[in-house]
Design a protein that fits this description.
alpha/beta; 6-stranded parallel beta sheet; 15 helices
Length: about 450
């Protein structure tokens, strides 16, 4: 597969590194040679110092034969124009990163498709959705719903009081149990577990279950004392904060602490809800947090542009009794540190955006893709076709690659967990977890 990425910035460079492991034919374009030099030196990809809106450069990059053209420069107008030109020159699919909310409305995305932009990525909205999903369940680090919740993945930090520690998974997560453990992050190690593996104290465990058994999961992991989130304190009034506040459920109230006085005035105009109070101040000021009621707040969300500030602010909030904290950590190098400090939910916009772009590189039968940032694992939803390998035998006889497991499936709208005797049928939506496995190899099993 030939892929051209325009823009050697956060999303473009992260995506390029991600795709190299699957041995795609990648060309990375950027007008700034310094952005390209280190990546081209350290990784096996072609770099090109050129403008993505230059017809000559696009032709030289081979856009006519490109399966996917991705424009993720810092300028949304450049991204949109580059995609339109690439599509006209023969690129099969195009994707553009934008920074304008109105562009992602259904009528406008359809308009852009007619102009040659196959898909639009708005990272702030994607991040806001992840944040709100995390706030809806205060005892969960990460949540991912498949088919409107027919299946649900829950990432949970295991503490004392969890009753399923130190037992082989075959005893606690068998064919008749209402959950599967599909991945485990233990320290710096990611485990796709087998029946003999055990859960340990302080593991971050990923459960696959159905919606009606979520209260049961909450009980066995000892999280029943966690209160639901109603009052949220947000540090930083950027675009992600605006999108998060405007998509909060009605039962949540938000206080937004923003250090810039002019931005505070703008925020009061941007929020759609009356349940948002804007406060001009420094979210790192503990006396201000106390004065504004942080001790009676169920969640603290740090969304400034500085990862260190967000991490330290969340640690401060935890020390003041806030159980649920969310930190925006845009520097990938800090993700492991944030996890080791037990920050809580970690949001990284470039990883979220890369998940959505990556989905386009897989077959049309792949419905959804997500990266578990802290676990360095991938989860994807595949739809097998008639005659595909996974429909020929029970799961136990499929010779599934090491590092891969099937978490569950959705059949006729009903979520089902998968056991060794399960036979997958064409048209099922099958949720697959993998670590250090080429996603294209897995895709072939479903085609």
């Amino acid at each position: 597969m030939k892929i051209i990425i325009a823009g050697a910035y956060a999303i473009g460079t992260y995506l390029a590194k991600l795709l190299i492991r699957n041995k795609y034919d990648i060309t990375l374009m950027d007008e700034n040679i310094e952005n390209l030099e280190k990546l081209g030196r350290d990784y096996d990809l072609l770099t090109m110092e050129a403008s993505p809106t230059s017809l000559k450069s696009l032709k030289e990059a081979g856009v006519a034969n490109a399966d996917l053209f991705i424009a993720v420069t810092l300028d949304e107008n450049v991204n949109l124009n580059a995609c339109m030109m690439a599509k006209a020159l023969g690129a099969k699919k195009t994707v553009a990163k934008v920074d304008t909310y109105e562009y992602v409305s259904p009528e406008n995305t359809e308009l852009f498709k007619t102009l040659g932009v196959s898909s639009i990525i708005y990272p702030e909205m994607l991040a806001a959705k992840d944040i709100i999903n995390g706030l809806k369940m205060s005892w969960v680090r990460q949540r991912w719903d498949v088919h409107d919740g027919a299946l649900t993945m829950l990432g949970i930090k295991l503490r004392e009081g969890c009753e399923i520690l130190d037992k082989p998974l075959r005893e606690i997560s068998g064919p008749d149990d209402p959950f599967h453990i599909v991945a485990v992050k233990r320290g710096q190690e990611t485990i796709i577990p087998g029946g003999n593996d055990e859960l340990k104290l302080n593991d971050l465990a990923y459960f696959m279950t159905t919606k009606n058994y979520i209260p049961y999961i909450r009980k066995i992991v000892g999280k029943e004392k966690y209160v639901d989130v109603k009052n949220v304190m947000i540090m930083g009034g950027g675009t992600t904060a605006v999108r998060a506040v405007n998509t909060m459920p009605e039962y949540m109230n938000a206080k937004i602490i923003e250090i810039n006085e002019h931005r505070c005035e703008e925020l009061n105009e941007l929020f759609d809800t009356e349940d948002a109070l804007v406060i001009n101040g420094d979210g790192r000021d503990l006396s201000l947090l106390t004065e504004e009621g942080v001790r009676s707040t169920q969640a603290f969300v740090a969304l400034t542009s500085n990862a260190e500030t967000n991490i330290l602010a969340c640690l401060s909030a935890k020390s003041m009794g806030v159980r649920k904290t969310v930190a925006m950590v845009e520097n990938i190098d800090y993700v492991n540190m944030a996890e080791s400090l037990d920050i809580g939910t970690i949001v990284n916009k470039k990883v979220i955006a890369a998940s959505h772009i990556y989905q386009m590189m897989l077959d049309v039968n792949v419905h959804n893709v997500k990266f578990l940032t802290t676990a360095h694992a991938d989860v994807a939803e595949f739809i097998p076709v008639q005659g595909s390998k996974v429909t020929m035998k029970p799961v136990k006889d499929l010779n599934i690659p090491r590092g891969m497991t099937i978490g569950g499936l959705v059949r006729h709208g009903e979520g089902l967990l998968v056991s060794g005797n399960t036979v997958i049928e064409p048209g099922d939506s099958v949720v697959v977890f993998c670590h250090n496995v080429d996603m294209k190899k897995i895709e072939k099993m479903f085609n």
